[in-house]
Amino acid sequence: MARYRGAVCRLCRREGAKLFLKGDRCYKPSCPIEKRGTQPPGQHGNSPRRGKALVGYAQQLREKQKVKRIYFILEGQFRNYFERARSFKGVTGASLLIFLERRLDNTVYRAGFSTSRRQARQLVNHGHIEVNGRKVDIPSFQIKIGDVITIRESSRQNPHVEGAWQTAAGRGRPSWLVPAEGVEMGARVASLPVREDIDRSINEQLIVELYSK
Questions:
Q1: Residue 198's pLDDT is what?
Q2: What CA–CA distances, in Å, run from 42 to 14, 46, 134, 149?
Q3: 156-197 residue pLDDT tens
Q4: For the chain, which residues make up each domain, given as ranges?
Q5: 213: nearest Cα among 84, 78, 54, 57
Q6: Architecture of the structural domain at 8-100+198-211
Q7: CA-to-CA distance for 141 and 107, rounded, in angstroms?
Q8: 103-189: what CATH class?
Q9: Would you call 126 exposed, middle or buried from its count of C-beta atoms within 10 A (0-12, 13-18, 19+)?
Q10: What is the mean pLDDT of the chain?
Q11: What is the pLDDT of residue 16?
């Protein structure tokens, strides 16, 4: 599957907000958002037309693009999540975000094994992650209540993993993930995430309106 391999800081500037695509490095003063503000990238980024408030379709499109970039997935996969959420009992927008939050790569990031979802995807793809004692190398794998996510024992000395784990201990983990008993570096899914656990800056209703046209 194709992946965006360009500069991720351009994506943050395009959306006019920090998406924390580089993890801890997003907190440094060298972050382009800190240095240049929310001016969009490119030679026309400071054009007066680019500074106008978005309304209607443009606002809906930008919100959809922002969520895609936060979770680092492409259009086809995002649309599949939306169709699944629409057929699911409950509020479509909230269900969409919960399906995205339940992805294994996002759970690895939330648990503290990585400093960004992009790094978490790489850990999963390279076979460093185990779910209930079995290797799972599918980033889109949907976790469920009771699942135990751990780093493979041979990978626990990785300096990137150790650093991320210590950083996560300082910033805290979401309430739906708790330490796994008897495991040195592991997290157990105590409950499924709910809307209140997910980024409050996301307006999922705009995405529903976009795809409902």
A1: 92
A2: 9, 9, 45, 41
A3: 888 888 888 887 766 778 999 999 988 888 999 999 999 999
A4: 8-100+198-211, 103-189
A5: 57
A6: Orthogonal Bundle (1.10)
A7: 10
A8: alpha beta
A9: exposed
A10: 83
A11: 62
